[in-house]
Amino acid sequence: MSLTLVRGDFDAFFRTPFVVYPKDTPYVSPMRSDLQRYLDPHKNPLLKGGGDLAVLVVIRDGQPVARATAHRHPASNERHGLSRSYFGYLDAADDPEALRLLFDGIEEFALRHGDDEIAGPFNLTAMQQIGLVTEGFEHAPFTDMVWSPPYLAARLEAMGYAAGFPMSTFRFRPGEVDRDRLLTPGARAILTSDDWTFAPIDRRRFKPRMEEARLCLNGGFDANPMFVPLTGEEFEFQAGEMMWILDPALSSVIHYKGQPMGVVICIPDLNPFVRDSGATYGPRALWAWLKMQFRPRRAVLILYSVMPETQGQGVNPAMLWRVIGALQQRGYRECGCTWIADVNGASLRQLERIGGERLHRTHLFRKVLDNAAA
């Protein structure tokens, strides 16, 4: 039986999870065109300034059985004092030999760049999909959540990768939430003050609102582990196409005397459409879109962030109070919440107040390379 590691074969890379995972698993692929754009070093601004990315696929007897990217994020290494390579988009059959060959390629990539450690999965940074699912395998992910099969964590550990940085994803049912539980004295004051206003993120004002969103994201997340501020080019590359799927009732920037102080971005969950379309645009995608219109409405809370100078003053609960009200009014049955790290106690407490139910437990996996350890 032949086993080969190939580089740069995007078609095989895209096909891998469709080959190795049964159709009834909860896995949902990125859209093919989106994935190809993200992995294009000529288009993705993340890979500028010394970034590098390799597309790796293991082929067994003519079929792809394991895939991952190996990549570097120079801005992250510089900001956090690291010499690290990353792996991402990890999907594989339960095939230890194929996984070992795949990670040989990832580790060779890191050593070639002079790095002393590898961590992942990062698809492609800490502000995108990260982590490997370690609990909750039975639950289908919402948009921007990962899913991985139960055996991958054990296979990584067997290759010397240690689990760390625990995180969780959540879901809640807006119709069952008593949103007034969020109304701290500060939140009540904000919601009744003329100095504080909500500016919806809609198509007409999409670019200026998203620039305000970027400023709030960079300000609010600045002290978070692994965070790297996004440039305007990077943020537009990642979020620009969101304009076509936004429900403007759900996403907004909150202003204090005209200045952006917080942002909440909540979008319809597109995973049912992506799954039914086969993650490609074509006749099947049209049918998948029509089918989604008749399903119970689902949304996903992508991010919420508050500028540091107003943190702890009730801005965050005021934003959540408003978005939950919009979810209720517009008939959304479920809402997911993308990863929250265990170290983020404030966000975890907010989820408790609205009855958030844990969907997945996820971890990052890290390995110090042998020659660095020596």
Unreliable spans are none
- C-alpha termini separation: 35 Å
Any idea of the CATH topology of the largest domain? Aminopeptidase
- Whole-number radius of gyration? 21 Å
Helical content (DSSP H or I, runs of 4+):
25-40%
User: What proportion of the residues form beta strands (DSSP E)?
Assistant: 25-35%
Structural class: alpha+beta
Q: What spatial form do the alpha-carbon principal axes imply?
A: globular
CATH architecture of the largest domain, by name, is 3-Layer(aba) Sandwich
Write the element-wise H/E pattern from the N-terminal end onward.
Answer: EHHEEHEHEEEEHEHEHHEEHHEHEHEH
Biggest beta sheet summary: 13 strands, mixed
Describe the structure concisely:
The longest helix has 17 residues, at 96-112.
List the helices and strands and how they pair.
Blueprint: E1 3-7, H1 10-20, H2 32-38, E2 52-60, E3 63-72, H3 74-80, E4 84-92, H4 96-112, E5 117-120, E6 122-123, E7 129-130, E8 132-135, H5 151-158, E9 162-172, H6 185-191, E10 196-200, H7 206-221, H8 232-239, E11 252-256, E12 259-268, H9 271-277, H10 283-292, E13 297-306, H11 315-329, E14 332-341, H12 345-353, E15 357-368, H13 370-373
Parallel strand pairs: 4-5, 13-14
Antiparallel strand pairs: 1-2, 2-3, 3-4, 5-15, 6-7, 8-15, 9-14, 9-15, 10-11, 11-12, 12-13
